Amino acid sequence: MTYKITALPGDGIGPEILEGSIEILEALAKKFEFEYDLVTKDFGGIAIDKHGEPLPPETLEACQNSDAILLGAVGGPKWTNPKNRPEHGLLGIRKSLKLFANIRPTIVTEATAHLSPLKESLVKDTDFIIVRELTGGLYFGEPKYFNENQAVDTLTYTTEEITRIAHIAFKLALKRKNVVTSVDKENVLSSSKLWRQTLEQVSKEYPDVTLNHLLVDACSMHLITNPKQFDVIVTENLFGDILSDEASVIPGSLGLSPSASFGESGPSLYEPIHGSAPDIAGQNKANPSGMLLSLAMCIRESLHQPECAQHLENIVFNTINEGIATKDLGGSYSTSEVFEAIKKSI
Amino acid sequence: MTYKITALPGDGIGPEILEGSIEILEALAKKFEFEYDLVTKDFGGIAIDKHGEPLPPETLEACQNSDAILLGAVGGPKWTNPKNRPEHGLLGIRKSLKLFANIRPTIVTEATAHLSPLKESLVKDTDFIIVRELTGGLYFGEPKYFNENQAVDTLTYTTEEITRIAHIAFKLALKRKNVVTSVDKENVLSSSKLWRQTLEQVSKEYPDVTLNHLLVDACSMHLITNPKQFDVIVTENLFGDILSDEASVIPGSLGLSPSASFGESGPSLYEPIHGSAPDIAGQNKANPSGMLLSLAMCIRESLHQPECAQHLENIVFNTINEGIATKDLGGSYSTSEVFEAIKKSI
Ligand SMILES: CC(C)[C@H](C(=O)O)[C@@H](O)C(=O)O
Ligand SMILES: CC(C)[C@H](C(=O)O)[C@@H](O)C(=O)O
């Protein structure tokens, strides 16, 4: 079976980190003897420039016909029309492909713990995953409008949507340390009351997993004061956006964190947590680790090559350990030099 | 003129930190020769126990007839009825008294910088204020309900509400470093689009103040990676809840941070950021600093005794500097011992 991959380089540093990663994928496929078809499509700002919209029909169709999507990054100061933003492409692709589960691991390794803004003793051995609901909540609820007098956004969740994401979190915890922390604002929001009660309900099907509840404001503190306490965190869309970005700086650089988004069936999407970093775009400075670790998630989950994925993850961290790293990690290597080193290690 | 103060000890550690602080206020009033009337009322969980509701009419009336309200903390595991929570008292008092502006300073002093979960070099000299809108947004918008199938919360803001809080932020910045950072989620939320455009509008009246915009997810990172960059942060209710709690751990202990809430006229409310900490309640262990620094804000803003306020702030920090501190600050003193030491220094 030949898997189909759609590559969406996007904007800013997106193309440089994705192109290099595709070469790594080629080398890995040779070594581990698997095949894939890859097409590259316009997405984000570049698609606005070339086709007038961030998610052109041709791009969406290619994605729909894929097993996996590799995304670089989108956005930049160039695209200022509030009605036609690169980011809208991201929201559109999530919604169209029903990518409701966003998985964001935070892992602190030996090699970068000292780079964390937090004290090394606090972050060492941190290893948790944030499961963010990605197609509900304030991002998509209607009514949603503004005029010169007032604005409205709507936060909606159905029990079905909450149940679905809860199962993802519990299943993940079963493969890990058996602890789920559900984050909500139950003392204020109706949606959080339904969220909490649904999580309790679903937890009955997972007697081996401990379910804890934490308020979102408290969680924003705990992530800093004691990140090691977490195993799997599950939360709604906007809370997940804020908390996963907060978590992403814990390992020492935003450039390290990968993410994956899954639907109930159909293609999955893999992208680094970081954005398009227009300030360093085209300068061969970007840290490719977040993209490469996203590729590793893709190889494991969509191409079903767990050994290959593990091999890639080991190489990425070993390379950093050896000091072959970009500036954000305290190194002096360029993006392409890091890719070279990784290719050699394959 | 004799100012009227209503004291609301509340639950958990609330009574112990507030009673001691009232004695400090007595001593300060003697030294600085001012007068006040103080009444104490039931509020929060204790009011549910005694009157069946967290904000009894008598309590609200006393608050309405005051110049200032001193609040300890509310809540605890004892009150589990989701329809009748101690926290509802807090939301009720904010709404009834139209306390739309919540001011939360984050200051890192010499004495506690080493206790921060962040690296000392990153946090030293941090000094910013979060201005949180407190009576709008998802907390109060309608419709707001849930049933067994779905839930809805509504995020509404009027231009008037945004304008009002923007002025508070700009005026504060004029007295400080002239920088306002407005935090929103403009790439997704309609309310944030109106927020950003209104902030731009109001900023025209403050040509000496620089206005920056930051997305809430990015802000949650910046607070950790570079807290020194901020002067005045202004944001909507829920973002302010999350970000100010995140910020509150930066100085080394949650027990250090004060807050003040203002309306357009009428009484102001002063309370520490921390909660009721039921796990240590009644054990004479609670750090009274957050309450005392809230009292200092009250003395400055509502009793109009700036020298007295400064004196109290100096004493609080000097006492910590001298090592007379509770366990959360690495000390071995009890709550009452800290109060004793502070009283002696007056
Ligand atoms: C670009 C933006 C719409 C997006 C989000 O808020 O989901 C981004 O911040 C993310 O976390 O992937
Ligand atoms: C208790 C709760 C309703 C409250 C809030 O969310 O506003 C608290 O977290 C706070 O920040 O004062």
TrEMBL record, chains A, B:
Its EC number is 1.1.1.85. Residues 4-342 form the Isopropylmalate dehydrogenase-like domain. NAD(+) binds at residues 275-287. The keyword rRNA processing does not apply. Binds 1 Mg(2+) or Mn(2+) ion per subunit. Substrate binds at residues 94, 104, 132, 217. PANTHER family: 3-ISOPROPYLMALATE DEHYDROGENASE. This is 3-isopropylmalate dehydrogenase.
